[in-house]
Amino acid sequence: MSAEFYDLLQAEDDRRRAERRFAHAARRAVTGVVEVGAGSGIVTQVLLAASAVPVHAVEPSPAMRSLLLSRLAAVRADRRARVTVHPHPLQEAGLEQVADLVVASNVIATLDPATRRELWKHVCASLVPGGLLLFDPPPTALPADIQHGTTLGPVRVGPDHYYAEIRHTPERGIIRAEFAYRVEREGRVLRREHETFDLWPADPALITEELHQAGLHPVRAPGPDLIAARRTG
Ligand SMILES: C[S@@+](CC[C@H](N)C(=O)[O-])C[C@H]1O[C@@H](n2cnc3c(N)ncnc32)[C@H](O)[C@@H]1O
């Protein structure tokens, strides 16, 4: 449901963040890049622009994939020729030793612990030995109370202004991230939409342990908001 608002409200900030987080590592990739949960393709575009190797964009959701493919339609043909879109979860994509960089942006927190543990194994399998995984970590703990977070927008489209209010609510071990979208014209609300995502907090020590068990050795991350790990063998 949020797919229709995504580019309007988030694309530019997300692009800048992706460049800061991932462009340097993508420039150094010599085998390939796997992007887990490519979503609308903002990060994919950054990875394609920065690298010169094949990029595997893994995205199981049809709604997000339609944004991804629309974005790829506007990408230079030589860059588009390097990207393969995998319409499955990573666990079913069958990617074996195709990359020396795996990127998971905004994905790990959205996975329940069992899926997350399973995912690490497939991340490891997709990397060549010594290959690097970069991801933004899940929240480390549940917030004590409801957090009224960011407002996105207003972004103007003709006579209308688009907004989103985001709030995080702790609930039985998970965090409910609620996006309340609003379209206004001349101060009057035309439309409201609402979407909720579940986020699973995880203690950093647990993440480290899970990575080790999957054959991934945590290493120094290139930024304060990232975790990095290398395939050991
Ligand atoms: C919050 S979105 C993030 C999208 C994008 N990476 C970004 O930073 O904007 C998480 C994405 O991960 C995808 N996803 C969830 N589980 C996945 C899995 N097991 N393998 C690959 N992608 C997955 C979802 O379909 C969704 O598009």
Instruction: Name the CATH superfamily classification of the largest domain.
Output: Vaccinia Virus protein VP39
Q: Which of globular, elongated, flat, extended, rod-shaped describes the shape?
A: globular
Listed once per kind, the bound small molecules are: S-adenosylmethionine
Low-confidence stretches: none
Beta-strand residue percentage: 35-45%
Helix content: 25-40%
Average residue pLDDT: 95
Number of beta strands? 11
Per CATH, the architecture of the largest domain is 3-Layer(aba) Sandwich
How many domain regions?
A: 2
Question: For the terminal residues, how far apart are their CA atoms?
Answer: 41 Å
CATH class of the largest domain: Alpha Beta
Helix run count: 6
Reading the helices and strands in chain order gives HEHEHHEEHEEEEEHEE
- Rg over CA atoms, rounded to whole Å, is 18 Å
Sheet having the most strands: 7 strands, mixed
